[in-house]
Structures are given as structure tokens and as C-alpha cells.
Amino acid sequence: MTRAALLALFLSSTAIIGYIFYRGLLTAPLPASMPETSAITVPSEPVESLPEFALSNLEGERTAIGSWPGRALLINFWATWCPPCLREIPLLKEFQDEHAGNPVQVVGIAIDRLDPVQEFAMGMEFNYPILIGQADAMDAAAAFGVEFFGLPFSVFTDTQGAVLGVHTGELHPEDLENLAGVLEDLRSGSTGLPQARARIAGRM
User: Fold this and answer.
1) Which fold has domain 3-200?
2) 161: which DSSP letter?
3) How far apart, in whole angstroms, are the C-alpha atoms of residue 28 and residue 109?
4) Are 150 and 38 in contact (CB under 8 A)?
């Protein structure tokens, strides 16, 4: 077995064990970190459109992921105990500011407890909505059909709720530049959904 295959097996096993532990021991302290992976992940059973789910926002109000109709979504799963998640938040805030006049919405989903997220949000001054959950947020991430995901984990949709792609690992400026270009071409009609998905996945 190659080194790459062994690494993939290790990460997948870690994710499964961590998920079972997390579901069974929700009151236990959350881990200090997770593996820092960075790769496009192809869904095992591709999810064509945004699944329906709802989580609590920072005020404790139940909020559906479909609360931003007509907007392309960048859904970012993160946690206060995940260093690469925290590194990419300023980039996501900048992306939201740059696209304030466009139908693009960043939505953060914290796989975490309410209290530490509220405390962290006070200092971070998010300019995009934050939803929060523990097992239910894990289930929301799994609803996108990926075989493996670590944190951070991001999902991209178009303005009609079609899933363009998913990304496991820390986002970088070039990832968001690519997303912005794809969304602009979709809006102008110069590209179609299959081509947009291929571009997000780095296949063209």
C-alpha cells in the first residue's frame, strides 16, 4: 500500500472514530485540533442541491439554511478549537465585504457549543451569519454526501441552490478568486452548471 493510500486510510479512520466519539459524548470537552487537510473532496453520492436543515444562530433562534434565497452560498463549517478554521475567518470576512453588492452570502456553521462561539464572536465581529450546532451540525455537514470531511469544510452553491462543489481544508485566496469567477460567469450566462462544477473541482 502506498504512503498516500495509508494516509487516506488513517484520516478516514480518524474521522469515523471522531464522529462516533462526538455523537456519543457530546458533554465531553471538544478536541484541541483536527487534521489539517486541504483537498477537493468528491462526494460519494453527489448532492445536486442544497439539503434542508436548520440550526441555531448566535441569538439562539432556529435558522434554516434556505434563509438566503436567490443568493449564492459559501457555507463554511468551523470550530473555535480548530486553528486552520480561525486562520481563514479574516479571508471569509474580506470575501463577504468584497461581494456585498452581489448575490453572494457567506454562512459560518460552528460545530461547537454555544457559549464559546458567542464569546469568540464578540471579539471577531463577524460580518456574516453564524449558525451553531454539535451533532446536528455534524449531520448537516454529512448531508452533503462526502466520504470524508475534516475541519474546516466548505460548500459552494449557486443562486438557485445547486451545489457547485465542496472543499475540505483551509481556504486560500486563489480558492475564493476561482469561486468568484465561476459565480460571475454563471450570472452572465457564459458558463453552465456542469462547467462551473468542473472549474470548482479543478478539472478545467
Assistant:
1) Glutaredoxin (3.40.30)
2) S
3) 20
4) no
- Is 14 a residue whose pLDDT tops 70? no
Domain ranges of the chain: 3-200
Q: What is the C-alpha to C-alpha distance for residues 61 and 57, in angstroms, rounded to an integer?
A: 5
b/e sequence 167-194, b meaning 16+ C-beta within 10 Å: bbbbbeeebbebbbebbeebeeeebeee
Q: Which residue from 76, 82, 83 is spatially nearest to 132, judged by alpha carbons?
A: 76
Angle at 185 between CA 145 and CA 100, to 5 degrees: 85
Cell of 187: 450570472
CB atoms within 10 A of CB 108: 25
Chain mean position to CA 15: 16
Residues ≥6 apart with Cβ < 8 Å to 146: 41, 42, 43, 44, 153, 166, 168
Phi, psi of 175 (to 5 degrees): -65, -40
pLDDT digits (tens, 9 = 90+) for 159-185: 999 999 999 999 999 999 999 999 999
| Set of cell numbers at residue 3 | 504512503
| Alpha-carbon distance values, 126 to 3, 90, 110, 168 (Å) | 40, 9, 13, 22
- 137, amino acid identity: A
